[in-house]
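User: Hello, beginner here. Can you help me understand these amino acid letters and fold codes? It all follows right here:
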Amino acid sequence: MLKRSIDVTASAVVLLVTLPFLVAAALAVRFSSPGPVLFRQHRVGRNGRVFEILKFRTMRVAQDTTNAITVGRDPRITPVGHFLRQSKIDELPQLVNVLRGDMSLVGPRPEVPHYVALYPEDLRRRILSVRPGITDRASIKYRNEAELLARQPDPDAYYRSVIMPDKLQIAAHYADRVSVAEDIRVILDTLKAVIRPEPIH
């Protein structure tokens, strides 16, 4: 209950404070390329419930959902979209998902259904026992995931065999030890990563 109260209060406050940036981002998306301002995609949430995640659209609409993963300087990404992704402003609409109860500020990042179907049963049960989040330890560790995948001969295979298993272990560890103190640490570490990103190795 405390975690949920913090989620609702903090999300409402951040939405109000960042309203000018949200409006500016929405206008930039709207006038940079044809299509809707928001990108919507089905993700799997708590207890396996599928919900519609919200982001500012960063890709050209005709190709927005072609691939589940984005690799390097993906040509589908618009110039405005690249800035929104780098600054993580594209994730801000997910605060609405938090207010709706779909997500939490901190929690395992929600995946698309076809990747969740690949989870080992025990990990799936543990990870889906909590609300997914806007950020988590895996998001910080793999902040430059697109660039890492761009170096691989088969990005999807690398994601499934290397990145996803590591993310699942991180997510399960969090789900087993949820605490407000850890959430605060994750939020602070996320802000640090956004402000002072480290180069990928």
Observations:
- The first strand starts at residue 38 and ends at 44.
- Residues 155-176 form the longest helix (22 residues).
